[in-house]
Specification:
10 helices, elongated
Length: about 260
Amino acid sequence: MADLFLVLFFVSLIGLITGLAKPSIFTRITKKEITRKKIGLGFGVAMLVFFVLVGITNEPKEKVAQPTQLQSEKEVAIGEMTEKATEDETEREPERNTEETGETREAIETDPLEVIEPETTNQVKKEPDTKIPAPTPAPETKTQRDTMIEIFKANALTKWGSDYEMVSYEIEQQTKAYDWIIKNASYADILTRAKQKWADDYTMIKYEYSQQADAYEWINQQTAHPAIMAQAKQKWGNNYTMVEYEYKNQVKAYESL
């Protein structure tokens, strides 16, 4: 611990010298105007505190070494006592075996028919556990909407980076467009083509779908000039906005003749 405070003391000393020489360094770091007086006061107090802590936490080596030496002597003494006890036990072991053998023979001779029955212990019957285990909760499943929101978030972060205001706005707009499509899209073929064109960009999918659906409904309401309408459909196919545009321009030119 003393080494740590010593390092911090030298770091404070370096900071003091650097700050007094060029205080603009700390101004850029803290983004506030710092004078040499503040730098000297701050680092001076820090140096004083760390110097005191170094003195407090730095224990003399002699005090540290003394308990270690006493512990070693104690371990040696315990080892010697253990060896003596082991030797005594070894010497007494044959005598014990002889005494036990004699006692066993005497017991057999005096009462040869005595049968020693093993002791019985009371056995407690355990009742089966009738508790019903708690049901395991089913894992949460993500809906299609949750999956799309994750995709919107990833795309927004890729597009806007650390501009989190625009990231949040992008996710909100994409989610609103997605909800609108789910609720209002009734022409599956038009929606499929819009998704193929714009992938996961649901703001553009919504715009494309709305334009194509409105044009499709308008085309179905037209009864005049069927030949011009047939030519426009043949030219632009299922691009209904262009079919509408082509039909209007051709009818306008035809009626101006």
